[in-house]
Amino acid sequence: MEDRLKEYWLEQIYDALTGNINKSDIKKLEDWRLQSAENDAFYEEVVVFFEMMEFGQQLSENEIEAAYKEFLNKKEVKVVPLYRRILPHVSIAAALLLAFFIGQYIAELKSNVAVETVFTVDKGSKSKTILPDGTEVWLNSATNLKVSRDFGTKDRRVKLEGEAFFDVAHDKERPFIVETSSIDVKVHGTSFNLSSYPKEETRVALFKGSVELLSINGQSVMMKPDDVIAYRAETGKFHLVNETLEKEYAWRDSKFIFRNERFEQIVSKLERVFNVDISVMNKAVLSKKFTGDFVQNETLPEILGIMSKVGEFSFKTKGRQIVIY
After folding, report:
1. pLDDT class of 83 with cuts at 50, 70, 90
2. SS (H, E, C) the chain
3. In the prediction, which pLDDT does 68 show?
């Protein structure tokens, strides 16, 4: 039977077995089966294959693991003997073909196991979560943390977009790795803050322990406690930042600490924390630098009111829209 015909009748048989076929196509399928013994045998083989797929769904995780390993090693898959009991007259070639299909099916099941769990924190919110290894993670506004289901198998790998404070459970056998768009942070047990928002430099502040920073261009830096290191994607370089740890993770305590910080950067933080959109019409104010301490129970108009006296700007609010003149 030609390959194209096989594909056509394979689809027809599958549709019949799943109930997605009309009466006229069923009649065509039955007539085709009666045309030759070869056609009828092919039909029976596909039926058994379909049954084996259903059987594969009933396998325990250990059985799937064993069958999957055998498939990768190109050995005979254990489900084939069942096929031989169901339909002993089918050829060895057909049995091997079924074994191949079943192995692929099980491999597909395996590939679907490692699904990521995503923790999302919207603008204007914060959250805390505990990972399966006991690591505690505080998530800042507008942050996504992705954890794969194989977390802890070989290593403990997560992906971060946004800002988080990690208190990592110690495990020298399985390093804890945080991936960002520009760098990876590798630790065994430590506490650190990592900020990696889109279009901003990536910053790491180490509270205790030690971490290694790895950039996408192959650079690496070892950090010691009290270090604050930033990475700029446009230059591809790390640099030590003269900042206090308190400033870096003040957000955990619902505080804002600005130290000689450009208003353009402050606007981005205020938008995330208060879930607002800020339009700056007075472009000159963007480059001005501000120093100050605020707490988040102060309203945004109160914060902007204080800053406007120093920065010589005015503003209007309408719902979530703020315009600075």
Report:
1. very low
2. CCHHHHHHHHHHHHHHHCCCCCHHHHHHHHHHHHHCHHHHHHHHHHHHHHHHHHHHHHCCHHHHHHHHHHHHCCCCCCCHHHHHHHCCCCCHHHHHHHHHHHHHHHHHHHHCCCCCEEEEECCCCCEEEECCCCCEEEECCCEEEEECCCCCCCCEEEEEEEEEEEECCCCCCCCEEEECCCEEEEECCCEEEEEECCCCCEEEEEEECCEEEEECCCCEEEECCCCEEEEECCCCEEEECCCCHHHHCHHHHCEEEEEEEEHHHHHHHHHHHHCCEEEECCHHHHHCEEEEEEECCCCHHHHHHHHHHHHCCCEEEECCEEEEC
3. 46
- Quick one: 222 exposed, middle or buried, by C-beta within 10 A (0-12, 13-18, 19+)? exposed
75, 153: one domain: no
Residues 269 and 320 reside in one and the same domain: yes
- Reported confidence tier of residue 4, pLDDT bands at 50, 70, 90: low
Considering 90, 111, 132, which residue would you say is the last residue of a domain?
111
pLDDT higher than 60, residue 204? yes
**Chain centroid to CA 83: how far?**
39
Domain identity same for 158 and 96: no
Clarify whether residues 95 and 122 are in a common domain: no
Total Cβ atoms within 10 A of residue 314: 13
Q: Which residues are paired to 187 by β-bridges? A: 176
**Rounded CA gap, 110 and 95, in Å?**
22
Residue type, 309: K
User: Could you list the residue range(s) of the whole structural domain that residue 288 is in?
Assistant: 254-324
Tell me the pTM: 0.63
Q: How far apart are CA 84 and CA 106, in angstroms?
A: 19
CB 210 within 8 A of CB 222: yes
193 & 309 share domain: no
Closest CA to 103 of 52, 46, 47, 43: 52
